[in-house]
Specification:
Largest interface: A-B, 21 and 25 residues
Order of helices and strands of chain A: EEEEEEEEEEE
Mean pLDDT of chain A: 97
Structural class of chain A: mainly beta
Strand content of chain B: 35-45%
Number of helices of chain A: 0
Radius of gyration of chain A: 13 Å
Oligomer: heterodimer
Number of strands of chain A: 11
Shape of chain B: globular
Structural class of chain B: mainly beta
Shape of chain A: globular
Distance between the termini of chain A: 40 Å
Number of helices of chain B: 0
Distance between the termini of chain B: 28 Å
Low-confidence stretches of chain A: none
Helix content of chain B: under 10%
Mean pLDDT of chain B: 96
Chain lengths: 118, 111
Amino acid sequence: EVHLVESGGGLVQPGGSLRLSCAASGFTVSSSYMNWVRQAPGKGLEWVSVIYAGGHIYYTDSVKGRFTISRDDATNTLHLQMNSLRAEDTAVYYCAADLEGYNYFDEWGQGTLVTVSS
Amino acid sequence: QSVLTQPPSVSGAPGQKVTISCTGSTSNIGAGYAVHWYQQLLGKAPKLLIHDNNDRPSGVPDRFSASKSATSASLAITGLQADDEADYYCQSYDTSLGIVVFGGGTKLTVL
């Protein structure tokens, strides 16, 4: 059974950093297109970043240069390093798997809340 | 402002049919990219409801169906049930932006 579990969220001051993790089971992260999708409080879904099976990486414009997506094949885990955090980055961050590479998200984690506030 | 436009809310009585529209442009839906739909129950993670315009993952009831034409798509829910009350999102790919895009979401209220 496919399962995704995020961790690492919390309260951080503006300008600070956080590292999110997403532990995967039931499939291989390195063979899938792994994404981060966020949802600000009371708002809709926003795609943040993807790492393709072949290693190509893409980001939405608002996080370019501040966020870094990576994966650890040994532990089957996806990460999101978030630096220079802003109030507008406050959201629930979901790890989402595109298992077949068809640009849709088959499986989602439960989400982890990131709050950027002084 | 979302790239894909959905109505903020729709409602219907139990047993009725509702439809949710998703309007895009020539750089996403109109460019031939598939439309996918997600259901998000209150306080929960989104769940894939429809992929590739009108394919249901295993376990999704056939009360849920979708269609696509030109630069828009729609999700239909028949035989409304109380536990269909949720937020629904459409999603596609935008070739101009080079990223996955979502609609703003539609809140379904079962009266």
